[in-house]
Amino acid sequence: MWLRVSIDHQPVMINGDRILKIVGLPKEEGRGCMLFVSQTEFITVDQSLQEVMISLGFEDRG
User: Fold this and answer.
1) pLDDT tens for each residue of the chain, 62 residues long
2) Would you give the DSSP letter of residue 9?
3) In what helix (H) or strand (E) does residue 8 lie, and over which residues does it extend?
4) CB 13 within 8 A of CB 2
5) CA-CA distance, 41 to 8, in Å (whole number)?
6) What does pTM read for this prediction?
7) What residues are paired with 6 via a beta bridge?
Protein backbone atom coordinates (compact mmCIF):
# COMPACT_ATOMS: atom_id res chain seq x y z
CA MET A 1 0.00 0.00 0.00
CA TRP A 2 1.35 3.41 -0.93
CA LEU A 3 1.07 6.31 1.47
CA ARG A 4 0.90 9.87 0.12
CA VAL A 5 2.69 12.29 2.47
CA SER A 6 4.71 15.46 2.19
CA ILE A 7 8.28 16.11 3.27
CA ASP A 8 9.21 19.80 3.56
CA HIS A 9 5.98 20.61 1.69
CA GLN A 10 6.95 18.38 -1.28
CA PRO A 11 4.56 15.48 -2.05
CA VAL A 12 6.07 11.99 -1.94
CA MET A 13 4.81 8.41 -1.97
CA ILE A 14 6.10 5.98 0.67
CA ASN A 15 5.56 2.22 0.66
CA GLY A 16 3.33 1.78 3.73
CA ASP A 17 4.29 -1.90 4.01
CA ARG A 18 7.83 -0.84 5.01
CA ILE A 19 6.73 1.29 7.97
CA LEU A 20 7.58 -0.43 11.27
CA LYS A 21 6.63 2.30 13.73
CA ILE A 22 5.03 5.77 13.70
CA VAL A 23 5.99 8.35 16.33
CA GLY A 24 4.45 11.80 16.70
CA LEU A 25 6.74 14.80 17.10
CA PRO A 26 6.61 16.82 20.34
CA LYS A 27 4.30 19.86 20.21
CA GLU A 28 7.23 22.31 20.45
CA GLU A 29 8.73 20.87 17.24
CA GLY A 30 5.50 21.55 15.36
CA ARG A 31 3.23 19.32 13.38
CA GLY A 32 4.51 16.10 11.89
CA CYS A 33 5.63 12.58 12.71
CA MET A 34 8.46 10.14 12.15
CA LEU A 35 7.96 6.98 10.10
CA PHE A 36 10.48 4.31 11.09
CA VAL A 37 11.52 1.99 8.25
CA SER A 38 14.09 0.15 10.40
CA GLN A 39 15.17 0.26 14.03
CA THR A 40 17.50 3.19 13.34
CA GLU A 41 16.25 4.80 10.10
CA PHE A 42 13.25 7.10 9.96
CA ILE A 43 11.60 9.63 7.67
CA THR A 44 10.11 12.82 9.10
CA VAL A 45 6.89 13.84 7.33
CA ASP A 46 4.67 16.92 7.56
CA GLN A 47 1.46 15.01 8.41
CA SER A 48 0.35 14.53 12.00
CA LEU A 49 0.33 11.12 13.66
CA GLN A 50 -3.48 10.97 13.39
CA GLU A 51 -3.46 11.84 9.67
CA VAL A 52 -0.96 9.08 8.90
CA MET A 53 -2.90 6.54 10.98
CA ILE A 54 -6.12 7.45 9.11
CA SER A 55 -4.33 7.13 5.75
CA LEU A 56 -3.12 3.65 6.73
CA GLY A 57 -6.61 2.63 7.84
CA PHE A 58 -5.84 2.24 11.56
CA GLU A 59 -8.13 4.95 12.92
CA ASP A 60 -11.76 5.81 12.33
CA ARG A 61 -12.49 9.20 10.73
CA GLY A 62 -15.65 9.68 12.82
Assistant:
1) 899 999 999 999 999 899 999 999 887 777 899 999 999 999 999 999 989 888 888 866 55
2) T
3) none
4) yes
5) 18
6) 0.82
7) 11
